[in-house]
Amino acid sequence: MVYSYTEKKRIRKDFGKRPQVLDVPYLLSIQLDSFQKFIEQDPEGQYGLEAAFRSVFPIQSYSGNSELQYVSYRLGEPVFDVKECQIRGVTYSAPLRVKLRLVIYEREAPEGTVKDIKEQEVYMGEIPLMTDNGTFVINGTERVIVSQLHRSPGVFFDSDKGKTHSSGKVLYNARIIPYRGSWLDFEFDPKDNLFVRIDRRRKLPATIILRALNYTTEQILDLFFEKVVFEIRDNKLQMELIPERLRGETASFDIEANGKVYVEKGRRITARHIRQLEKDDIKHIEVPVEYIAGKVAAKDYIDEATGELICPANMELSLDLLAKLSQSGHKRIETLFTNDLDHGPYISETVRVDPTNDRLSALVEIYRMMRPGEPPTREAAESLFENLFFSEDRYDLSAVGRMKFNRSLLRDEIEGSGILSKDDIIEVMKKLIDIRNGKGEVDDIDHLGNRRIRSVGEMAENQFRVGLVRVERAVKERLSLGDLDTLMPQDMINAKPISAAVKEFFGSSQLSQFMDQNNPLS
């Protein structure tokens, strides 16, 4: 039996049938620890004010002749204590002072030659402080910042459950959600073509993203399909046999080898037939010439004598085309392996509806979709695409997002870069196609494992970063003006945008709620 003592030393007897195993946790610690992380100096720069400053600084001028660097920050002491703030109707806060360094480079000298360095401590507004009860005193009233439950960053696979299209066909989609940056959606349409959307804008064929990543049609097909190899020997067509691929198909001709018929024409190929073929180690079978008609070429075929492209990758083969290939000396022909069961031709079909054929045209298409009306240039299109998913300034999955992303794709490591890589995008497309082929399950987006808590420190950091980005634009313009010799760091910084962002968050945001105080007289 568990005994506890009150201040009067009277024994409290527990009549519960089950013993108390765990103590009740200190629930306020979520708020207190989170805010402490926000204002505490983090030497690695991963959390709080330190992370916000490091993400924005150093700020360089457009010419590159000067830059404003961040050194450190310190929080001063609050002017009044909590009680005094409530009586006077003011905010319980501490002044934020930041040490900044203005570096001016020599214009004519080699790059990196420093002309002058000025260091100064600059006032950057007030940061409201948390009381011991996990509350804030804003303009004399006690307020609480409520934690937010939001969708965790990462990759999520989902379906419309047949509600979008009138036929009731289930359309699958995948969504890559970053902590900061553009959303990337992949989705199937009713014709089973795969499309991509960036930030929920107009959809484009998904292969445009792959072309923008510098993949050719041949490389795209190589990534997503297995190959069926045909060889022309003595004017006869032979196919390299992988018996397992024939399972479930109806034989359109007698399957025979070494004078023995394994499957008669018109019969469905069963597991027994496949076992027999594997047991006898049959590697090649002769097939009628008509069998190759309608198959899709896996690569470009060029006439080596003339250099003419006879058959581009992803083109359907015909008997005339086969004759041309044979005449030009191509005795080995690779085609895509597809079937109606678990190897759909989705990417091959998508390449056909893709209006682009090289990297530049793909980048221009993405630019037109993101910036309609603006004339695209090569530099602008490359810069836009690079900044969407591959720039650490504009895109961040966060540690949680990367961990969820890697887990979803069944990778061993849970850490990695905050930006996307080519492999990330390709693996998401492969898994979505596997789900469409019936190999895999979609995620439950309502499951709490796919959500996370965003507490006060994290939200305050985001708001502070918003204020800093506004200041960054003004500082860049100021640095680009002449007469830097007489200017000091404090002349560059206007603290009002930062104070306004912080004030708005703590004072009037939806998550800043008035603290319930019970009136003892009521």
From TrEMBL:
Alphabetized Pfam families for the sequence: RNA_pol_Rpb2_1 (PF04563), RNA_pol_Rpb2_2 (PF04561)
UniProt-listed SUPFAM superfamilies: beta and beta-prime subunits of DNA dependent RNA-polymerase (SSF64484)
Tagged with keyword Nucleotidyltransferase: yes
Domain of life where this protein originates: Bacteria
MF annotations from Gene Ontology: DNA binding; DNA-directed RNA polymerase activity; ribonucleoside binding
Assigned keywords, A-Z: DNA-directed RNA polymerase, Nucleotidyltransferase, Transcription, Transferase
Main enzyme class: transferase
Record's keyword annotation contains Nucleotidyltransferase: yes
Domain named RNA polymerase beta subunit protrusion: residues: 27-499
GO CC annotations, alphabetized: DNA-directed RNA polymerase complex
Enzyme Commission number(s) of this protein: 2.7.7.6
RNA polymerase Rpb2 domain ranges (all copies): 151-234, 345-454
InterPro entries recorded: DNA-dir_RNA_pol_su2 (IPR015712), RNA_pol_bsu_protrusion (IPR007644), RNA_pol_Rpb2_2 (IPR007642), RNA_pol_Rpb2_2_sf (IPR037034)
Originating organism: Klebsiella pneumoniae subsp. ozaenae
GO biological-process terms attached to the record: DNA-templated transcription
Protein name: DNA-directed RNA polymerase
Transmembrane intervals: none
